[in-house]
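Pipeline run #58 for the internal structure catalog. This entry was flagged by the ingest filter as a single-chain record with no existing model, so it goes straight to prediction. Upstream metadata was stripped on purpose; only the residue string is passed forward. Reviewer on rotation: M.T. Logging verbosity set to normal.
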Amino acid sequence: MSKRIGIVTGCGRGIGFAITEKLLLENESNYIIGISRSSNNELDKLKKEYGQRFRFYKSNINQTEKVIKIIDEIQEYYGSINFAICNAGIRSRLCIEDSDLDLYRQVIEVNTISNINIAKKLILNNLKNQMPCNILFISSIVGARGFDELSTYAVSKSALEGFMKSAAVEYAKNKMQLNCLAPGFIESSYAEDFKREKKDLYDWTIAQTPMGRWGKCEEIAEIASFMISEKNSYMTGTTIYSDGGWTAK
């Protein structure tokens, strides 16, 4: 089985770490390049356990020139990049009245522009090499639904989904696939603090979710793994929701 080279951003914890670990564990042909703003003990364990199959770069994704150089280095070392899971992002929780335009710019710069930068670089590289590429953006149900105090995050995710749809149509003939995976509330690294510090809001999210619980990072990783796999050969320009039924209401 030939190597499949993939990038996972925001790989240090939560959904990003669960995806990285699953891809390494499930298929020996997967070579994963992790990009995250910081390292940790869990990533060190992956480096020890998987050796050359896991390579880590420390970078914020909004360091756009640095990320471009990383992608070039990966391609020079491994060859063409087959897939990318763009998971890294930030959120802010402020009402619209208290969210100035600079905050909107900051969130959009990380969640939207930085991911467009990665996608454009991969598309251009693979067009040059006449190779397909599968790009998956981790979005959010917030991009499609209205939420109090999350307008900055919502704008960034809905804009990212708009780019995804247009790029998917534009490059489908070149065997480029672009999709979004939009989780609901997930038990990632912030979950315990959220339950403790925002109990009323946590209870509300449970009441809004038909399945009556938050999702698990591993559940999102399962879907992401399929969406960038060779088994997924006909899906592009689509947002898949994994939210316990929230958006079905």
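catalog note: The radius of gyration is 18 Å.
catalog note: The first strand starts at residue 4 and ends at 9.
status: ready for reviewer M.T.
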